[in-house]
Amino acid sequence: MAQLKLGVLASGRGSNFAALVAAIQQRRLTATVRVLISNKEDAGALAIAQQNGIPALFLSPKAFASTEHYDDEIARTFIKYNVNFVVLAGYLRLLSVDFIRTYTNRIINIHPALLPAFGGKGMYGIHVHEAVLAHGCKVSGVTLHLVDEIFDHGPIILQRCVPVLADDTPETLAARVLVQEHQIYAEALQLFAEGRVKIEGCRARILPGSCNEACQ
Ligand code: GRF
What we know:
- There is one protein chain.
- The chain has 7 helices and 9 strands, in the order βαβαβαβαβαββαββα.
- It has 216 residues and is of the alpha/beta class.
- The protein folds into 2 domains: 103 residues, 3-Layer(aba) Sandwich (Rossmann fold), CATH 3.40.50.170; 107 residues, Formyl transferase, N-terminal domain (Rossmann fold), CATH 3.40.50.170.
- A 7-stranded mixed sheet has the order 3-2-1-4-5-6-7, with helices on one face.
- The protein is globular.
- The model has no long low-confidence stretch (mean pLDDT 95).
- Bound molecules: 5-O-phosphono-beta-D-ribofuranosylamine (GRF).
- The site of 5-O-phosphono-beta-D-ribofuranosylamine has 13 residues, from α1, β5 and α6.
């Protein structure tokens, strides 16, 4: 794919977005962030974008008649900013089918557990970690996946395991998972930047990297 020109959607504090901006600045990720859009006026992600000179827009869902109209406006904005890849960084709205089709295999999401377990309806934020602990899991982790029309379902790009400790609370587990989230998001996007992701049906195949990497 051509150079990654990212459009970011975020609803909250934006720590994953901040980690991506840092990765770009440190040249671990070859990409530019064209624009960030939030559905929440007080989202921390908006402030992080502004501090980094990235166009930041709050779009109120209340100003639109439907999710489809709202997402159409996002798509128009992304086209205006020349976005070719969409990053969900803690975005808490479901995307419309038309939007997903516009960016087929070019929308990526981060989920704070090992999909396909602990995904789907109601599985967001602290609820994910509560469910992992309630099941007595010994490992949890992070999943980066492409977004398709089924919630938390598209091709998995990268996953990383995180141990669950005997005395974990949902909060301590969330914090351990978040450390890995901040690392792996940039790694996943860099695979796209290097043209190393091949989608085969509902799976993603990761192509080998340069000789230096392969020979390590
Ligand atoms: C992260 O835990 C992410 O996995 C989930 O939403 C949370 C967003 O956190 N999708 P932040 O806004 O990036 O700090």
